[in-house]
């Protein structure tokens, strides 16, 4: 059977195509995961719906409520957006860590999310940022926090026909900062062994008012760690507080044990990275 | 049949080709258009031997469908030289012996050109990061980095 290739002009049309599809149907944005899976024979799509011709997926928009990053925006374009970089440096750094320049030209944060890997680079930063997925489906629109999308390795809570149109990032209060760190055994082009994203907002006395901490590659999905956030709220990130943050992060880990990293290593490094990321976020928020 | 007619601009020329819906841009370039400069190394976006630009962005053509190129501007290694005059990158790759078997070379040249178009005075670190998506199993990279540096100097003189 020949593969059907469609280029709808609206997200609603894309959702309808996906909802009505018989056989295996996949959405295509950058294709850097999808084509690898197609070529390896892991999947044989009957239908591929290319969302790059949909206006709502193509741009990064700044508004009073924050940023909206279209599902077809390549990660490289995020790095070329000064206002986005200024407001969410951790999110942009995380997105820009995915693959090479060649991959950056194509890969998207929505694709990174929907590949549903626990080691996805941009996802801990998005979850720490409080990002939401704007979804269009056969029954209309809904908005879901990013941490509710992936349910396990390779599985998602999206229903048949639902298409993520964009990722939204909330409006940034003053004195806010975020950061993302990833451990890989080399400097570039590798899959995260552990990663950590932290987003903070401080009060006028440089005390952490709000925090979100997320960890990657240490559990079946990227995990939001409220206990780690609680450990630092109300503090100025002194060493004893950072120890508690690290301990909360390590406690949230249930990693796999493989050649890339042992359980002990991933558990320990999760705390270390979260601590370092928190310090960077604090500095960026003006905490000094 | 699922063959689709695709209209693109390749190296400045309006070009039409017919390809299957699941055929990669790399296969279309090589097998339909005879543009065999772009190579398939890994076929999974790791090695960069198939690097071309699509609408100005460097991509692995093995990870792009031919049908996705509809209406796009594609540049390949075949468009790099100006007639018989080599691009400074090509000339410096030869001068510095920055290749041995040559399979990776078109991809390195395309990636290096995108870098120099953006930044004609890159540091060694910037060159190495920009070429991180291209693998070479012959040269050990050092000669490639030197050739790019030398080419950058030429480009700046222009």
What report would you give on this structure?
Chain A is an alpha+beta fold and 288 residues long. Chain A has helices at residues 11-20, 34-39, 75-79, 82-87, 89-96, 101-104, 109-114, 122-128, 226-232, 239-251, 263-284; strands at residues 4-6, 25-28, 47-50, 60-63, 66-70, 132-137, 140-145, 150-152, 155-156, 163-170, 176-183, 194-202, 208-216, 223-224. In chain A, the strands form four sheets. A five-stranded antiparallel sheet of chain A has the order 4-5-10-6-7. The termini of chain A are far apart. Chain B folds into two domains: 4-79, Roll (Ubiquitin-like (UB roll)); 88-157, DNA polymerase, domain 1, CATH 1.10.150. Chain B is built from five helices and five strands, in the order ββαβββαααα. Chain B has helices at 25-32, 88-95, 105-118, 124-130, 142-157, and strands at residues 4-10, 13-19, 51-54, 57-60, 73-75. In chain B, strands 2-1-5-3-4 form a five-stranded mixed sheet, with helices on both faces. In chain B, α2 (88-95) packs across α5. The longest helix of chain B has 16 residues, at 142-157. Chain B starts with a strand and ends with a helix. Classes of the chains: A alpha+beta (288), B alpha+beta (158). At the A-B interface, α2 and α6 of A face β4 of B.
Distance between the termini of chain A: 61 Å
CATH architecture classification name of the largest domain in chain A? 2-Layer Sandwich
Q: What fraction strand of chain A?
A: 25-35%
Major sheet of chain B: size, sense and barrel closure? 5 strands, mixed
Question: Which terms summarize this structure?
Answer:
heterodimer; A: about 290 residues; alpha+beta; Uridine Diphospho-n-acetylenolpyruvylglucosamine Reductase, domain 2; Uridine Diphospho-n-acetylenolpyruvylglucosamine Reductase, domain 3; Enolase-like, domain 1; 3 domains; 5-stranded antiparallel β-sheet; 4-stranded antiparallel β-sheet; about 35% helix; globular; B: about 160 residues; Ubiquitin-like (UB roll); DNA polymerase, domain 1; 5-stranded mixed β-sheet
């Amino acid at each position: 059977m020949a593969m059907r290739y469609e280029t709808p002009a609206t997200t609603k049309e894309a959702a309808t195509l996906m909802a009505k599809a018989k056989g295996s149907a996949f959405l295509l944005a950058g294709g850097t995961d999808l084509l690898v899976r197609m070529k390896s024979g892991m999947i044989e799509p009957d239908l591929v719906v290319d969302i790059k011709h949909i206006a709502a997926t193509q741009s990064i928009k700044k508004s009073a409520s924050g940023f909206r990053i279209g599902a077809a925006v390549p990660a490289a374009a995020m790095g070329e957006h000064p206002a986005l970089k200024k407001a969410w440096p951790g999110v942009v750094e995380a997105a820009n860590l995915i693959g090479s320049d060649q991959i950056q030209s194509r890969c998207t944060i929505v694709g990174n999310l929907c590949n549903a890997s626990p080691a996805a680079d941009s996802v801990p930063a998005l979850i720490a940022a409080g990002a939401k997925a704007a979804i269009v489906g056969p029954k209309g629109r809904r908005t879901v926090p990013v941490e509710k999308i992936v349910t396990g390795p390779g599985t998602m809570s999206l229903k048949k026909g639902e298409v993520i149109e964009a990722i939204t990032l909330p409006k940034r209060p003053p004195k806010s900062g975020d950061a993302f760190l990833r451990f890989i055994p080399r400097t570039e082009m590798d899959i995260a062994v552990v990663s950590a994203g932290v987003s903070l907002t401080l009060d006028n006395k440089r005390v952490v008012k709000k925090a979100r901490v997320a960890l990657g590659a240490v559990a079946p999905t990227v995990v939001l760690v409220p206990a780690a956030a609680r450990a630092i709220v109300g503090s100025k990130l002194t060493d004893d507080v950072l120890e508690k943050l690290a301990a909360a992060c390590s406690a949230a880990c249930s990693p796999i044990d493989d050649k890339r990293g042992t359980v002990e290593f991933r558990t320990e490094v999760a705390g270390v990275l979260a601590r370092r990321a928190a310090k960077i976020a604090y500095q960026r928020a003006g905490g000094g | 049949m699922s063959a689709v007619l695709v209209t693109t601009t390749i190296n400045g020329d309006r070009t039409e080709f017919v390809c299957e819906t699941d055929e990669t841009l790399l296969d279309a370039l090589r097998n339909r258009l005879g543009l065999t400069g772009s190579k398939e190394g890994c076929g999974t976006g790791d090695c960069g031997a198939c690097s071309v630009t699509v609408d100005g962005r460097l991509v692995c053509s093995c990870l792009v469908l031919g049908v996705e190129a509809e209406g796009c501007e594609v540049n390949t290694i075949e468009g790099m030289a100006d007639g018989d005059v080599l691009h400074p990158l090509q000339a410096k790759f030869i001068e510095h012996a920055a290749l041995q078997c040559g399979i990776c070379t078109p991809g390195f040249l395309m990636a290096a050109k995108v870098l120099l178009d953006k930044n004609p005075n890159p540091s060694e670190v910037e060159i190495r990061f920009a070429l991180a998506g291209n693998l070479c199993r012959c040269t050990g990279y050092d000669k490639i980095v030197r050739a790019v540096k030398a080419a950058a100097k030429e480009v700046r003189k222009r």
